[in-house]
Design the sequence.
């Protein structure tokens, strides 16, 4: 009995340590700067929604938000077709060297990003893709491929082979069997992989830090980090906290809506070995 | 066209976009990284000199690199141990009890789901000396003497970062261990209960051995995570004060993008990669044998 109470208390404490700081950010985003300074714990006297307006317009969060939206959407628009095409071949069309090539893709899930960061920076510079949303998008596609190919290959494996054969007997070619029969069946997999990648891309920091140099192409994580440094001088903390909510709000909402499927995908990806 | 060449064309065509993108932006830079690490190369000019393993020799005697590696090992040993212990304890507690856990399961991944940048800024405000909630709480409890400038004091900066590292990472491990616990058949626990084995003994002699494979994978992730910590340190302390929180990757960033020491920075990246691989291999080897097999 005592043990059970202690366990429950521990779990509540842990949950509080996770949730309270996030609630604190949300509450603080509605306070004025003097209030934040004077009483960090108190609730706001009036709700300062103007913090959000200032973050959005004056602090440049609108620009960053748009950039993040563009890069995330464009990456998914390339990644999902390219990744599922490769995954489909790996799952359904055994060929010589397939295991080796598949292994090369999976290896990318274990490579630390920073191993490639200098060569990647120089490569993009030479291709005139540095400091552009296009460059960032292509790099994001490439670095998201391992996980995407891995999960989608697993998904295509689960689809019955008979369906493919039936489609071929009905006169479908390889391409149309994929487009008309297999891809529609793989939609649940695509949705999970898409959401999972979208969250990671929305949050991504180190690659963006190196690739997106100038202000006009900053993504949200860069924008908010920059705002943090600027507010040391300007001290508009309310706007900064509003910016934090703008960055994490959409992600938490999407996560909450799909949490069970995201959870299962993460487990599958993490325990592949 | 024959069916087999049509098939071949299809396979090649469907693989090509992925292979080109992955080859160009991942595989090729990896290969280049190993080559670059053998050159002395200061950014702006195209001029580079082959120096063999000189960069690695220089790394070995670079006091900042050694210090940075030491800090990464603190993240690994202190932070990693805390993550494994907390992760196991919480996963176990969640698994054992009834209703609450479903709600908790949604919550514990929050820190993992939000951007590392948000986590860093959030914790900068928790530690903020003038209006952070940590010092606010300490002062409210009358412990004014303990209200320090946590990130600005050499003695406390690294521990403060390690705490944030644990907070940020532990959810992932709770998730792994929970998944592992679910694979243990209920019958095993029932049998143990019938034999009168319960509590801590059941955990040590039954649960832990059955979680062995998951624990091993988890430890490899801990190694990778602790040796590749970047955003938290870069944003919260930039390696300071006085390099007291410098880590391998923050130092790499400084060498590459502040000093334009591309050759040296890449050698650092290769060294980091090799150290990660060695430690991960060591973990795999040390924990290869499942204690359960030994008994059987």
Sequence:
């Amino acid at each position: 009995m005592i043990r059970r109470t202690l366990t429950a208390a521990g779990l509540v404490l842990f949950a509080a340590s996770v949730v309270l700081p996030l609630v604190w950010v949300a509450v603080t985003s509605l306070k004025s700067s003097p209030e934040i300074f004077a009483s960090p714990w108190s609730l706001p006297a009036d709700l300062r929604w103007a913090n959000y307006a200032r973050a959005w317009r004056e602090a440049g969060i609108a620009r960053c938000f748009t950039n993040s939206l563009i890069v995330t959407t464009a990456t998914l628009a390339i990644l999902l077709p390219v990744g599922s095409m490769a995954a489909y071949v790996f799952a359904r069309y055994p060929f010589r060297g397939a295991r080796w090539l598949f292994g090369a893709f999976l290896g990318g899930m274990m490579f630390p990003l920073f191993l490639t960061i200098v060569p990647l920076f120089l490569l993009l510079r030479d291709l005139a893709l540095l400091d552009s949303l296009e460059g960032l998008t292509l790099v994001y596609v490439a670095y998201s491929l391992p996980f995407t190919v891995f999960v989608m290959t697993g998904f295509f494996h689960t689809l019955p082979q008979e369906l493919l054969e039936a489609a071929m007997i009905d006169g479908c070619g390889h391409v149309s069997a994929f487009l008309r029969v297999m891809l529609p069946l793989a939609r649940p997999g695509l949705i999970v992989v898409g959401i999972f990648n979208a969250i990671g891309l929305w949050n991504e920091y180190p690659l963006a830090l190196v690739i997106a140099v100038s202000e006009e192409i900053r993504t949200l994580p860069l924008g908010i980090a920059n705002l943090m440094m600027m507010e040391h001088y300007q001290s508009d903390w309310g706007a900064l906290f509003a910016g934090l909510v703008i960055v994490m709000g959409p992600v938490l909402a999407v996560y909450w809506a799909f949490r069970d499927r995201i959870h299962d995908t993460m487990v599958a990806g993490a325990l592949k070995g | 066209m024959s069916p087999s060449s049509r098939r071949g064309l299809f396979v090649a065509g469907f693989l090509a976009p992925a292979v080109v993108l992955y080859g160009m932006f991942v595989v090729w830079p990896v290969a280049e990284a190993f080559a670059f690490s053998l050159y002395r190369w200061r950014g702006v000019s195209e001029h580079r000199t082959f120096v063999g393993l000189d960069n690695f020799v220089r790394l070995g005697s670079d006091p900042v690199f050694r210090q940075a590696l030491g800090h990464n090992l603190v993240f690994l040993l202190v932070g990693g141990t805390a993550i494994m212990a907390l992760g196991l304890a919480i996963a176990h507690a969640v698994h054992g009890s009834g209703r609450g856990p479903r709600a908790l399961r949604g919550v514990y991944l929050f820190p993992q789901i939000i951007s590392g940048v948000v986590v860093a800024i959030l914790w900068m405000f928790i530690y903020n000396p003038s209006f952070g909630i940590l010092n606010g709480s300490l002062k409210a409890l009358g412990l004014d003497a303990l209200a320090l400038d946590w990130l600005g004091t050499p003695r406390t900066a690294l521990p403060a970062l390690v705490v944030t590292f644990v907070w940020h990472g532990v959810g992932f491990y709770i998730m792994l261990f929970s998944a592992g616990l679910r694979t243990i058949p209920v019958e095993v626990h029932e049998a143990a209960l019938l034999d009168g084995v319960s509590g801590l003994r059941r955990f040590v002699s039954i649960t832990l051995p059955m979680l062995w494979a998951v624990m091993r994978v988890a430890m490899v992730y801990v190694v990778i995570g602790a040796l590749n910590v970047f955003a938290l340190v870069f944003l919260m302390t930039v390696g300071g004060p006085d390099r007291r929180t410098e880590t391998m990757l923050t130092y790499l960033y400084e060498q590459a993008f502040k000093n334009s020491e591309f050759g040296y920075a890449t050698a650092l990246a290769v060294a980091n990669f090799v150290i990660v691989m060695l430690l991960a291999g060591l973990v795999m080897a040390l924990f290869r044998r499942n204690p359960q097999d030994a008994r059987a």
